[in-house]
Amino acid sequence: MRAIEVGDLVMTYGELHAVDGVSFTVEEGEFFGILGPNGAGKTTTLEMVEGLRRPTSGTARVFGEEVWPRNKRLLPRIGVQLQASSFFERLTAREQLQTFAALYGVGGDRGEAWLERVGLVDKADTRVNDLSGGQAQRLSIACALVHDPDLVFLDEPTAALDPQARRNLWDLLSGLTDSGRTVVLTTHYMDEAEALCDRVAIMDAGRILELDSPAGLVRGLDAPTRVTVAPGQITVEEARRIRGVDEVVDSADGIVLVTRDAPPVVARLAEEGRLDGVQVHTGTLEDVFLSLTGRAYRA
């Protein structure tokens, strides 16, 4: 059975089509990502799939059941970490997790376990409104997972975290699907999607532009490879004479050889003993994202 089936989902606000005919499926045990610039329709799409918002038209099914009208049978099987969470302000982090555990009918020991897993043991007795933004974000994720749901929705879960905390959380999130759990993630971090997701949908203006594995999306971009040779290893004139080099750029980091056929170019550098300090940069998911959505600033 598929975890999620979305068919021609639409959400309109007057003349605005926030979500405009979105269709996709998510398999059980899959880590599925949705990427897009601000206002692309990511959060609205998730809210309809979660059963929090009634679609204008289209269908959304989770584990074979309709999510709207609000389906109470699905609630114990779903965990949701919203982009902005509201807590009981006067409760401590421990009390907050114990409350969520009780609402789902599970023991308070689950809350203690999740405090440790998200690195909040030393903040267990701190009131929620005294936590930093990153700490509150980690608590929000713990609350979404405390009842061990089959399907988890994470809306920009690492947005307020520092780089070290982000990497630690990646380790946690990457293991969520090991026991068959399904995860749906929205994020602005391309490296995060590449590291965690089995497949990624790129959205803009309420539509899905591309959907594939991160590696598949990069292959489809057909981006050139940039081979950077350390300063002093080669001259611009020598680089231009290497067969397969389309362009040569003299940069502060060294001489950059732009090519669409990297193996023979690198082999020639090896033959000439010029590999010391060489860096090879291929296309990335960020390149795909910018190619599809453009570089203009979004409000």
Automatic annotation (TrEMBL):
PANTHER family xrefs: ABC TRANSPORTER ATP-BINDING PROTEIN, ABC TRANSPORTER ATP-BINDING PROTEIN NATA
Any Pfam family hit: ABC_tran
Gene3D superfamilies for this protein: P-loop containing nucleotide triphosphate hydrolases
Listed name of the protein: ABC transporter ATP-binding protein
Alphabetical UniProt keywords: Antibiotic resistance, ATP-binding, Nucleotide-binding, Transport
Membrane topology: Peripheral membrane protein
GO molecular function: ATP binding
Highest taxon, organism lineage: Bacteria
Annotated ABC transporter domain residues: 4-230
Matching SUPFAM superfamilies: P-loop containing nucleoside triphosphate hydrolases
Localisation per UniProt entry: Cell membrane
Record InterPro entries: AAA+_ATPase, ABC_transporter-like_ATP-bd, ABC_transporter-like_CS, ABC_transporter_ATP-binding, P-loop_NTPase
Family, as annotated: Belongs to the ABC transporter superfamily.
Major location (coarse): membrane
